[in-house]
Amino acid sequence: MPYLQPFDPWGSKLCTCPPKWSLNPYTGCGHRCLYCYASSFIPRFYEPRPKKDFLRKIERELEKLPENSIISLSNSSDPYQPLEEKFRLTREFIIRLTSKKVKLLIITKSDLILRDLDILSKLEVVIALTLTSKSLSKILEPGAPSYEKRLNALKEIKKRGFKTVVRIDPLIPEINLEEAKEVLYESLPYADHFVLSTYKAKADSLERLCKAFKERELLLKRLYLKEGIFVRGSRYLPLEIRRKILLPFIEVIEKTGKSYALCREGLKEYATKKGFCDGSFLLFK
């Protein structure tokens, strides 16, 4: 199976992303996020490992890639997870891109990306940092860098002239909503685009959250399992609750004139003409 695959969000009609290619240098992820959806379909997800013969195979696949293709790095694991410090597959991959006519989207939770800004400056790239919470980051994302490191990385990336996206994702009722508002205000000056997304529950991720936040277990199971709706393999919050959660964030962003998008929420009244969820439109500005 090729490592470069057409991006397909499980056939979701709610996805607003344009056509692009998806690539994961690693299988699984060492950030061990409790809310991760990928652990539901990738075996041994929390035992991350490099893709076999990654660089050799990807060189061949890049030769066949159409010019000006958009590559999203990564959608099922973090390209700058802890393994990257040792194996450097992400760095070696982007080095190879410098001789290609492609466009790059990077989604990460790690300040390790600062190491590669020298190479990334030679590419057409948009960098997305996921900021989920402040004090809860070690519970929700135990293997990822702290919120402070990520925010400082965002500031440096913006200072260096890169186009930036902040993903406030996921928004989990009664767990990180108040801190997420602080995240929004603190990141506002450094983001060109925002992506907002409520938590979509998978069976395994919901159990992990309930175990970590025992005092919220009954509430979470009621909202997702009893009152929620089933959409393409995930349990969603009821529509009105999603609207109530997202609206305060939308109002703040709209006042700044910056663009935003909602990730697979289906709230058409808040659809923006300024850009897609993934921020790929920034590649063409």
Descriptive account of the structure:
The protein has a single domain, classed as Aldolase class I (TIM Barrel, Alpha-Beta Barrel). Helix 7 packs parallel to helix 10 (239-256). It is built from 10 helices and 12 strands. The radius of gyration is 18 Å and the shape is globular. It has 285 residues and is an alpha/beta fold. The strands form 3 sheets. It has an 8-stranded mixed sheet, covered by helices on one side. The protein is 33% helix and 18% strand. The longest helix has 18 residues, at 239-256. This is Radical SAM protein. It comes from Caldimicrobium thiodismutans. InterPro entries: Elp3/MiaA/NifB-like_rSAM, MJ0683-like, rSAM, rSAM_sf.
Question: What's this, in brief?
Answer:
By secondary structure, the chain is an alpha/beta fold. 33% of the residues lie in helices and 18% in strands. The mean pLDDT is 94.
Question: CATH homologous superfamily, by name?
Answer: Aldolase class I
* Global morphology: globular
Which class best fits the helix and strand makeup? alpha/beta
Q: Average the pLDDT over all residues and give the rounded result.
A: 94
CATH uppermost class: Alpha Beta
For the record, the CATH architecture stands as Alpha-Beta Barrel
How many distinct domains?
1
Helicity, in percent? Answer: 25-40%
- String of helices and strands: EEEEHEHHEHEHHEHEHHEEHE
> With helices defined by DSSP (H or I, 4 residues minimum), what is the helix count?
10
- Euclidean distance between termini CA atoms: 34 Å
The gyration radius over C-alpha positions equals 18 Å
Query: Which residues form runs of ≥5 with pLDDT under 50?
Result: none
CATH fold assignment: TIM Barrel
**Largest sheet entry:** 8 strands, mixed
Number of strands: 12
